[in-house]
Write a structure and sequence with these properties.
Elements lengths: L6 H7 L10 H7 L6 H27 L3 H21 L4 H17 L3 H16 L7 H19 L3 H19 L6 H14 L3 H19 L4 H16 L3 H17 L8 H17 L3 H19 L4 H16 L3 H19 L4 H16 L3 H18 L2 H31 L9 H6 L2 E2 L5 E2 L1 E2 L2 E2 H24 L11
Antiparallel strand pairs: 1-2, 3-4
């Protein structure tokens, strides 16, 4: 990726684009208009005030946008700032910040070339202001940090580290060796080392972040929670899963202690809990994973209400963890709630609802409730057939086939028991028993009842037990909404 200069903006910085050095008011009078200089200055002041107010509003609006939406807002903001600087002669630093903000927006949306172009322009413009504005020095460090991230994402790790080291050196000179603003640079450097698989260097930098944040803000601060989250991710990439879970738990505890504060969104705490639950599940700590995920479920219900797609998804994952811990009744209760939510959120013929029908139907098979099982599986069958989802349809047909086989086997066993004794409790016909008497291989006598040998009944029972095991394993294997769920 090569840096590209934007000539027009460099020229604007030096005053090019307007005739000589005359003010706009003087130009108007020179063209023969009757507007006095004072009148023009008053109008210019009013226009600038409106434009600056709009610039501030756009800045706030950009914070609430998606990465793609933020780009559009920042483009408008840059155009407005060009008018303020090039036409109304406002401070050039306004334009520096506009270029930087747009470059950062491109970076967040993974448009690295565009990001590099705008950040390079910002760096050049800002460098010309060092002798005029003190705040430009720390802002220079900020631009260098963003450029370092940009090079990292482009795969140029050597240049990325070089830029970040320059940024850190400059920031320490301006703000001090132990200032908390250094931490963002440490974190960026840690990310580069993680890409290089130098995990020890990465975690050492993050421990520095933790120490600085703890000294500056306290052990129970949101900044320390962020350090814990960074350490958790670093240990995860290091494949030290125990420590990753440990730091994620610490972060969650800090967030929970801060739960009443307005600065901590409920969904942010829930996201931390969901990630922790996923890691605990992979570590086969199912009960802990379930407890944490239920906390996330409550947080989502509080933040978004019960009837919300995000809440519904978490409830479904809670049900699947119940299944993994063999708590089938609780899983069924949770899935019944999911069924109602999905019917409201997605509609009667939605694929989401069809998948839930399939899981509930399988649960009824495990619980030996063939009538309910068939009803739910047929509902799923209808949805998948209408949508042309052949793979899911095949799975449902397989379950229905197994269900029919188990019902047939149960009927045969019931018939055998009926032949063994009549309604009065007397033994069955001696003649029938004698007729079916025969010797088993090896000379041992085998006794058949109603055409079925005792040995046959035992085999049938064994098959039935095996069949149940197959249902359970098959269910867990293809619970498609949670890929982490493994066979028991």
């Amino acid at each position: 990726m090569q840096q590209q200069e934007e000539e027009e903006d460099g020229e604007a910085m030096e005053g090019d684009g307007t005739p000589d050095e005359m003010s706009p008011g003087q130009q108007a009078n020179g063209n023969g208009n009757n507007m006095e200089g004072d009148d023009y200055e008053e109008i210019d002041y009013k226009i600038c005030g409106e434009l600056e107010e709009k610039n501030r509003a756009l800045d706030e609006f950009a914070q609430s946008q998606t990465p793609e939406g933020a780009i559009q807002v920042r483009i408008q903001q840059l155009a407005l700032c060009k008018v303020l600087v090039n036409i109304h002669r406002r401070d050039l630093f306004i334009l520096v910040k506009a270029y930087t903000n747009l470059g950062e927006a491109y970076l967040n949306h993974k448009y690295y070339e565009q990001s590099l172009d705008h950040l390079t322009t910002a760096l050049k413009l800002n460098g010309s202001l060092f002798s005029k504005l003190e705040e430009t020095k720390q802002f220079h460090s900020h631009i260098l940090t963003l450029l370092g991230k940009c090079y990292m994402e482009a795969g140029n790790y050597k240049d990325a580290l070089s830029l970040l080291e320059k940024s850190l050196k400059m920031n320490k000179q301006v703000m001090g060796e132990d200032h908390h603003s250094n931490c963002l640079i440490y974190i960026a450097m840690s990310h580069v080392h993680q890409r290089l698989r130098d995990h020890d260097a990465a975690t050492n930098l993050l421990f520095q972040v933790w120490e600085v944040y703890q000294a500056a803000f306290g052990a129970n601060s949101l900044e320390v929670a962020r350090a814990y989250l960074e350490l958790a991710q670093a240990h995860l990439k290091k494949k030290d899963y125990s420590e990753a879970i440990n730091f994620q738990q610490k972060a969650l505890k800090v967030y929970q202690d801060q739960e009443g504060a307005q600065s901590v969104p409920q969904d942010q705490i829930a996201d931390v809990a969901i990630t922790l639950s996923e890691w605990l599940e992979k570590a086969e700590r199912i009960e802990e994973a379930l407890d944490v995920l239920k906390q996330a479920e409550q947080l989502y219900e509080y933040a978004y209400s019960v009837v919300d797609k995000r809440t519904c998804k978490v409830k479904r994952n809670v049900a699947l963890l119940y299944l993994k811990s063999n708590r089938y009744e609780e899983a069924l209760d949770e899935l019944k709630e999911v069924e109602e939510l999905e019917r409201t959120l997605y509609g009667e013929a939605s694929v989401q609802l069809g998948k839930t029908y399939k899981v509930i139907g399988t649960l009824f098979i495990i619980n030996s409730n063939p009538q309910e099982a068939r009803e739910y599986l047929m509902r799923a069958h209808g949805i998948f057939e209408a949508k042309g989802l052949l793979k899911l349809l095949k799975e449902v047909k397989s379950k229905l086939k197994m269900l029919n086989s188990s019902v047939k086997l149960a009927a045969e066993m019931a018939a055998a028991e009926a032949l063994e004794s009549d309604d009065s409790g007397k033994e069955g016909s001696p003649d029938r028993g004698k007729f079916n008497s025969a010797k088993a291989p090896g000379g041992k006598k085998k006794v058949t009842v109603g055409g079925t040998t005792n040995m046959g009944v035992a085999v049938a029972k064994k098959k039935k037990v095996a069949k149940k095991t197959v249902f359970r394993n098959n269910f867990v294997k293809e619970s498609d909404s949670t890929p982490q769920l493994q066979q028991q």
